[in-house]
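Hi F.,

I've been meaning to write this up properly since the lab meeting, where we talked about keeping a consistent format for the predictions we share between groups. The idea is simple: the sequence comes first, exactly as it goes in, then the structure tokens exactly as they come out, then a line or two of notes. No screenshots and no reformatting. I'm using this chain as the first example so we have something concrete to point to.
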Amino acid sequence: MFTFALVCVAPCTCLHADVPPEQKPEVEHLITYLETSDCSMIRNGEAHDGEEAAGHVRRKYEHFRNKIDSTEDFIRYSATGSLISGKKYQVQCPGEPPVPSAEWLLEELEVYRSDG
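Output, unedited:
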């Protein structure tokens, strides 16, 4: 009987995993920030504009939603590197050298939190 209860409960907990409701605006802000920036996200050696990059990050967010418990998890799972090649993503803004995408997004998250 106890085992049956675990089987019923476990699938339900996975369906509700995601960033806490109070952090959802942070995730949405970071996606919008990427989407509307003049910067490119470099994935596997190929540059993608903000709109393409944001779409890719959204798809990865949906894929990993059950593992994401914070905005920082969102960045780590959805916006830092390729699952296939293992290469880290970079963001390159006009006139600046590329930086790791995690660094770029965490910096913006810090700004967003300090303004809020």
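Notes:
The radius of gyration is 16 Å.
The CA atoms of residues 2 and 83 lie 37 Å apart.

If this format works for you, I'll send the rest the same way.

G.
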